[in-house]
Amino acid sequence: MTLEIGRAPLSRTDAAVRSARVAGSAPLSRTDVAVKSAQEIRDERRAAVLRTEVALKVTLVTLTWLVSVSLLLGWGITGPQRQPGTILLAALAAVVGPFVGAVIATRHGQFRLGGVYVVLTLAMVLPALLVVRAG
User: Fold this and answer.
1) What is the DSSP annotation of 15-67?
2) Distance between CA atoms of 75 and 90, rounded to whole angstroms?
């Protein structure tokens, strides 16, 4: 009875080292892949600052939109006289506000947020038409 000891299959790190040697470069180590360069760290910080600025701008537009539409509708409906011009302005602001948020988000590369605001713009068209028609 003989005992045969087989060689273990190559792991992924061994395969990476072997392919690096074949290519003619130095073998890869874990620090080559895991450690970020100074430029990558600066780029990540800039991207985080840009995302924060975009989020703040879109939040400002959203809050302004919500407050202005509410005030315009309230004034147009419960004011001393029914004012169709004010209601029309509220309907216009109801559609334009989310559109501005979509433009800000997409111009700064935040396409998902921009898409959400495009859907919100399209969703506000029907209520705006109903408000104008009722007013």
Assistant:
1) HHHHHHHHHTSPPP-HHHHHSPPHHHHHHHHHHHHHHHHHHHHHHHHHHHHHH
2) 10
Instruction: Decide if 90 contacts 72 (C-beta within 8 A).
Output: yes
Q: Which of 121, 11, 131, 6 is nearest to 62 (CA)?
A: 121
Residue 20: partners with Cβ closer than 8 Å, 6 or more residues away: 26, 27, 28
pTM exceeding the 0.70 threshold for the entire prediction: no
pLDDT per position as a tens digit, 2-34: 656 655 555 555 555 555 455 556 666 655 566
Cα–Cα distance between 24 and 34 in angstroms, integer?
A: 22
For 30-87, what is each residue's pLDDT tens digit? Answer: 555 667 888 888 999 999 999 999 999 999 999 999 999 999 888 888 877 777 788 8
Q: Cα–Cα distance between 75 and 80 in angstroms, integer?
A: 9
Please tell me whether residue 11 adopts helix, strand or coil conformation. coil
